[in-house]
Amino acid sequence: MRSTGDKITLEPIAEPHSQPVRVPDSYSLSWRNTVSEYYNKKTASVLKKYGPGPLVHFHTGLFSQSLPLVPEPNAMRARLVASQELLLDRAAEAWNADRNFRGEVLDVGCGLGGGSIYWASRYGANVTGVTIAEAHLPLVSEFAEMAGVSERVRVLLVDACEVPTDRTYDTAVALESSCHFSRTKWFARLAKLLRPGGQVCIEDIFWRRPGGTRVWDNYFRTRSGSMAEYLDAAGAAGFRLADRVDLSAQAPEFWLQSIGWIDATLDTGGLDREELQRLQISRRTHKQVYREWLAGGCERLLLRFERIG
Question: Which residue numbers delimit the Methyltransferase domain (predicted)?
């Protein structure tokens, strides 16, 4: 698969050349270690693709229209980063950030801190970021300092379902991270962390039918759930669904643009063997994720839950 003009030619789907990752039946310690190892190893490539900072995101973006691909990696990178920022802007609007992101915010699965810095700088939130990747810690602090919000952003190395209850929060937010851990345990923990009336804001990928997120889950070390599963887990912990926005129609374009960045990077040459192999695997899998979206087995949603009581 290569870019031809402003289009991408897709050959028939093949299995990823990377070793498949078996998703366990339960969210065990070994699974948590698998996810932690994945993100620690991924840090350098995330910086290369979405850096240099201080706002570095590791989630998909939002495109309002299809755009022709260009052969310059830096131009494609800038386009992808802008799409990630557009997603945050859209999420902020849907979640009424002017009201809900003004106090204490828990950023679950904060990655390199792009979202944490966004909420702190745009809305004055005091943000506690949570990650299980040790490699993220110094970078979040460094980027927060660069952005001038170091006093409003702190980061914890802890499992999302084991966040200390020594402080309470007004809002918890999870951008494409709730797919990594038990929703039942997570909502139960949030019931102890959020004040009455507190908000849980989620942007993630959900399956519409079993197996609809197979490629996504295998490659990104996730365990996507259905909308029904989230509703059950939230309800059992004392939360109600307050808002739902469907962004599925705008999801596939990100993958085409991301493939365009990979192709432009490969075409520059000068890559060592390891980086060349990594990008080839990434390109192959991106194509499969794109086809998975076209098959209609998954959906991309913005959800907002409210703690009852």
Answer: 105-198
pLDDT at 17 over 60: no
Q: Which fold has domain 29-307?
A: Rossmann fold (3.40.50)
> Where are any strands of DSSP class E within 178-266?
194-207, 239-246
Distance between CA atoms of residues 96 and 138, nearest Å? 30
Lowest mean pLDDT among 21-30, 80-89, 192-201, 247-256: 21-30
Please list the residues that pair with 157 across neighbouring strands.
131
CA of 61: how far to CAs of 36, 50, 90, 215, 292, in Å? 23, 11, 10, 18, 17
Residue 1 has what pLDDT? 39
DSSP 287: H
Give me 144's structure tokens: 């927060």
Q: How do the domains of the chain map onto residue ranges? A: 29-307
